[in-house]
Amino acid sequence: MDSLPEAVLIRILAFIPAVDLVLVCRLVCCQWKNLVDGAALWILKCQQEGFAEEEPAEEADNWQVFYFLSKRKRNLIKNPCGEEDLEHWGDVANGGDGWKVEELPGDFGESFPSDGVHKYFVTSYEWCRKSQVIDLRAEGYWEELMDTTQPKIVVKDWYAGRRDAGCLYEFSAKLLSEHEDVLAEHKSETIAIPEDNDGSWNEASHTFSDYGPGVRFICFEHGGQDTLFWKGWYGVRVTNSSVMVEP
């Protein structure tokens, strides 16, 4: 192995799982440590898995971190579209007739603007709110990463009204410490959708960055109600919620 050109050794190491590179290969010798800590190996692994182009246009601050974040990138919200009814969601408020899951497009509704979303949650004639708390460590985002790199956290939600009923909508996200102290928070304004609206789906989003050390949990919450106070489920519709830690 000592006689191998460095470029060849990098190509061999690139076939080894990333965790083994960091926890095992890095400890073999000074040369391997330098290669694992360097950019070339991780650029190659990013290229192999489609996270970077053959000739990266931009230089990442840390290609190793970029690789691990790209590998873990996914929606951290469980059951975002109601396919499992209300599983994984905690009720904050369950007014009127409470939450219900319906099939798209629903009565006096519109189809979702992209494929793969088939259901939505709908609110009633008093405020309905539900939430999820995401444990970042349990999802594979270790403390040093969150404290030092502080990757962007992108929160999104989709909402719509029935064409024959007005409604209200709100969403919020909080970054929480180990002891669930609020370190950063975004809360939307209360959005009013008038009666006789077009039923179209709208996206609400917020990006957290430079939020400081200590973030261990993310709390996502959304909800609303109808403004006509009709019995049943004439309030705001929500679906395809997402929380992603971006590379």
Automatic annotation (TrEMBL):
PROSITE patterns the record matches: FBA, FBOX
* Claim: Secreted is one of the keywords in the record: no
Q: What is this protein called?
A: F-box protein 2
Q: May I have one GO cellular component term? A: cytosol
Extract the Gene3D superfamilies matched here.
Answer: 1.20.1280.50, Galactose-binding domain-like (2.60.120.260)
Return one Gene Ontology term, BP aspect: ERAD pathway
GO molecular function terms attached to this record: amyloid-beta binding; carbohydrate binding; denatured protein binding; ubiquitin protein ligase activity
Q: Where is the FBA domain?
A: 66-247
Alphabetic keyword roster: Ubl conjugation pathway
Record-linked InterPro entries: F-box-assoc_dom, F-box-like_dom_sf, F-box_dom, F-box_only, Galactose-bd-like_sf
Entry keyword annotation includes Thylakoid: no
Q: Which organism is it from?
A: Crocodylus porosus
Domain named F-box: residues? 1-45
Q: Which PANTHER family match?
A: F-BOX ONLY PROTEIN 2, F-BOX ONLY PROTEIN 6-LIKE PROTEIN
